Amino acid sequence: MKNYIQKLNLYHSLIFFLIANTFSLIIDQNKNLIISPLICLLLILTIGISHGSLDHKKGKKLLNTLKISNMYFFYLLYIVTGVLVIILWLILPSITLILFLIIASYHFGKEDTDFLTNNNLNLNQLFYFLKGLLIIIAPLNFHFEETINIFKLLFISGEKFYIFLGYIESYNIIPIIFILSVFSSIYLFIKNFRFINFTIFLDFFSILILNYYLSPLLAFTFYFCFLHSIRHSISLIFELDQNNFKKGFLIFLKRALPLTLITAILFLVCLFILKNYYVLDSAILKIIFIGLASLTFPHILLEHLVEKNEK
Predict the structure, then answer these.
(1) How far is CA 130 from CA 107, 123, 204, in A?
(2) Considering only CA atoms, which of 190, 231, 215, 234 is closest in space to residue 288?
(3) Can you tell me the distance from the alpha carbon of 100 to that of 228, in angstroms, rounded to the nearest whole number?
(4) C-alpha span between 282 and 155 (Å, rounded)
(5) pTM of the predicted protein model
């Protein structure tokens, strides 16, 4: 089954690479074509967050091993963790943003590469993190000012934070981090080399192309929805039915719909409230990134606990 998933992910990466190139060139050749942040939000609320909508199934599995039968315990902890992240962001936005970027980098690197490896060595974890840093460093490299403006919209107003970013830009730290990310991809590519490892470079160049031609928000949305989320969903589909992908896909849609719908409604309600205090695009950016942070922390924590328990 793992070999089949690897081949499917390779085909997915190839298709994504071709679509990313085509879409980026269309945007580049049509400067007046502007994709609204609202479109990005809707994509994230549907395709994006759906890959975490089966967390309650993993939570149930974890509770069973802990001999806890009440699922309300899981929902309570999951929600409380998300709310605490939002509160922490409002109190200490710079620190929370940095933690979010670090954790998200590791998560993206691991989820997009782990299916290629047969071991879980500590050294691999480091290379997953460095590889995932490309998602963070690419927009800073190609659209520094625009990325900084997004940070400012996320309540990141501390002067020391921007002085720190200024040092990073002045002393060419961004290219150094970029090179480390490149080397991590090369290492993961040549380690136990197989043809399937070309998935790594297809993804690498897709991310670069998207961030070179597109705005940081649009590039992230395209990656998050159509590469990261779909790849994770593929693994969930096979968990639901190893022998029949179509059947597993239908089961996934049925089970993912309730929590995806509830989460989307909550996000839209928050957007409706925030637009009374901020312009619409600014409110959307707050909802996307702070909202994703509130979902990402409990999602990654659950993934870690389940994986640790299975070992």
Answers:
(1) 11, 11, 12
(2) 215
(3) 17
(4) 11
(5) 0.90
Q: Which domain holds residue 282?
A: 2-10+38-310
d(CA 256, CA 176): 40
CB-based burial of residue 221 (10 Å sphere; 0-12 exposed, 13-18 middle, 19+ buried)? buried
In a domain, 177, yes or no: yes
Decide if 265 is inside a domain.
yes
Tokens of 134: 């490309």
Per-residue tens of pLDDT for the chain, all 311 residues? 667 778 888 999 999 999 999 999 998 888 777 888 999 999 999 999 888 878 888 888 888 887 787 888 888 889 999 999 999 998 988 889 889 999 999 999 988 888 777 666 677 888 999 999 999 999 988 998 899 888 888 877 766 666 767 777 677 788 888 899 999 999 888 887 888 889 999 999 999 999 999 999 999 999 999 999 999 888 888 888 888 888 888 989 888 888 889 899 999 999 999 999 899 999 999 999 999 999 989 988 888 887 777 66
Of 115, 100, 107, 168, nearest to 132 by C-alpha is: 107
Distance CA(136)–CA(121), nearest Å, equals 24
How far apart are the C-alpha atoms of 18 and 227, rounded to whole Å?
12
Structure tokens at 159: 């002067």
Is the residue at 189 inside a domain? yes
The domain tally of the chain equals 1
- The token pair at 23 is 């879409």
Is 238 domain-assigned? yes
Find all residues with CB under 8 Å of 220, minimum gap 6, and list them. Answer: 135, 139
